[in-house]
């Protein structure tokens, strides 16, 4: 069975990266495999390359710097024997993502509070200020 050979346009379509971004990723050393060329000099990629690029897209979306992705790609290219270093790169980024999630949860809590305040305000026909909690009715002491 012959491995699937993909050209840059198809890889761009499958990954959501532009052709320009794919070339930039290649120059920055982000690919885990060597970029091959066909007999006409056009770049050719494998399905494994597309899988790796999909990982890179997720790494970037999670805030991983290009330099870190490049480091990880270099380690993968070097082959076995450096798995502990790869693991530490991923663990460090995991810590970063967990911190981001905590910060985003804090932001979401703030937004949820504001949404609830405006919903209460509008449910009360928009009277009063949205940020003022209704005062409890005054209780008069019994004579």
In terms of DSSP E residues, the strand content is: under 5%
Number of strands: 3
- The global form is elongated
Span of the ends, CA to CA: 96 Å
Task: Count the domains.
Answer: 2
CATH class of the largest domain: Mainly Alpha
Mean pLDDT across all amino acids: 90
Note the run of SSEs as H and E: EHHEEHHH
Share in helix = 55-70%
Q: What is the CATH architecture term of the largest domain?
A: Orthogonal Bundle
Helix-and-strand structural type:
mainly alpha
Spans of 5+ residues with little confidence (pLDDT < 50)? Answer: none
CATH third-level topology of the largest domain: Multidrug-efflux Transporter Regulator, Chain: A, Domain 2
Radius of gyration: 26 Å
Q: Going across the major beta sheet, what is the strand order?
A: 1-3-2
Main sheet: strands, sense, barrel: 3 strands, antiparallel
**What's the total helix number?**
5
Q: What's the multimeric state?
A: single chain
Q: Can I get a quick summary?
A:
The protein has 143 residues and is mainly alpha-helical. The chain has helices at 8-15, 19-27, 47-61, 66-78, 83-123; strands at 6-7, 36-37, 43-45.
Give a description of the structure.
- By secondary structure, the protein is mainly alpha-helical.
- The protein has helices at residues 8-15, 19-27, 47-61, 66-78, 83-123; strands spanning 6-7, 36-37, 43-45.
- It folds into 2 domains: 1-79, Multidrug-efflux Transporter Regulator, Chain: A, Domain 2 (Orthogonal Bundle), CATH 1.10.1660; 83-130.
- It has a 3-stranded antiparallel β-sheet with strand order 1-3-2.
- The protein is elongated, with a radius of gyration of 26 Å.
């Amino acid at each position: 069975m012959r491995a699937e050979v993909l050209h840059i346009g198809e890889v761009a379509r499958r990954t959501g990266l532009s052709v320009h971004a794919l070339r930039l990723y290649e120059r920055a050393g982000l690919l885990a495999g060597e970029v091959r060329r066909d007999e006409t000099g056009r770049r050719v990629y494998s399905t494994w390359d597309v899988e790796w690029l999909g990982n890179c897209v997720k790494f970037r979306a999670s805030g991983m710097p290009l330099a870190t992705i490049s480091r990880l790609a270099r380690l993968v290219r070097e082959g076995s024997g450096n798995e502990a270093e790869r693991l530490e790169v991923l663990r460090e980024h995991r810590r970063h993502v967990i911190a981001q999630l905590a910060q985003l949860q804090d932001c979401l809590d703030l937004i949820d509070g504001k949404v609830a305040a405006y919903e209460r305000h509008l449910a009360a026909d928009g009277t009063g200020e949205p940020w003022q909690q209704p005062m409890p009715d005054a209780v008069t002491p019994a004579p």
